[in-house]
Specification:
The protein is an alpha/beta fold. It is built from 6 helices and 26 strands.
Amino acid sequence: MLENIELERAQDIILNHVRVLPGESLPLLQALDRVVAEDIIAEHDMPPFAQAAMDGYAVAEGDGGVYQVIEHLRPGEMSAVSLSSGQAAGVVTGGPLPEGVVAVVPQEAVELKGEYITYNKLIESGSNIKPPGENFLKGDLLVRKGACFSPGMAGVLASYGINEVTVYKKPRVAILSLGTDIVSYRETPMPGQMRNSNGMHLAGMVMQEQCEVIGVEVAGADSTAQIGERFEKLLECSDILITIGGAAHGVSDQAFPLIKQSRADMLFWGVQIKPGSHSGAATFGEKLVISLPGNPAACVVSFHLLVVPVLRALQHMKPHQARLSAVCADVFSKKGGPRRFLLATAACDHSGWNVIILPGQKSSMTKAFLRDCNALIDLPVGHPPVKKGAEVSVILLKQEYL
């Protein structure tokens, strides 16, 4: 087993054990924001026939500005005739056009007398006509495999009569909080106990990654055997199991012994980052177990760096979050030590990307969670203090930035 390894090596090791989940067919609206699992090709031209781009008159070629109106087409009505020279037909926006049409002229630009219209302007061939295939031609790629399914895609597919789309299945995630002092958030803690806030926080972030939370449980004061049984049951019904807390090597820490006794194969334990150094990973068959530290900020940082890439890779998405340079709007006085990640808010304006360090950067603090924590500032090993206006490396956490 590897110990105390670099972050990028830890990420590579975990991702090498990820197998993309199979697809499932869902109704269009249920598939929104899911990752499309196959290319979708246009089966025919769209529109499939020539259409009027406005209410007016479809006209054939003519010698002058007077045309005989031989029919008035209603919405969706197909013409049974072909226009000859000097003839016209009344049409509506989006309606099919008769054969022999060279242009559509707007109804407000003509003078109607009886069954004749007068249009004295120059007729431009093809004007106000939507030709077949104006949007898509037969064989065009409509939706690419790996795309995030959007309302616009739903609308286009609906126009083709497609009512379902194949998307990758949601990863099923189980969360198990360790520690005899941790109780459910629904309970009133006794002196010395704490509610399982980490579990709820991680469950919410898992759902934001389009994954399914199948359980948020607390080991509490259960025996080693009971915790082991719960651990294996959660693994059976999930694709990835996250443990929280007890990840150090202290006398009371449960994560490492629990994983070892479960017959899982250890991948690594310990990552060279702060906060979050007490993190580890193992495999149980094709399933992953990732252990995160119990301090709230350390838990969240480790989740973004180690778990999120897995959740995205399981859905055939680009695993790593976007990274860029930004100007820091405030200061961070600490220096030196291991590679450090700061909870932050990043934004882009006319001057470029800027980033604000959020309050409460201690591993045990939760102040930053009430703000828009959408970024991590990545400070290298032995970094100097961060000064206002300094350029820093930033990892963007939200998918819309990818």
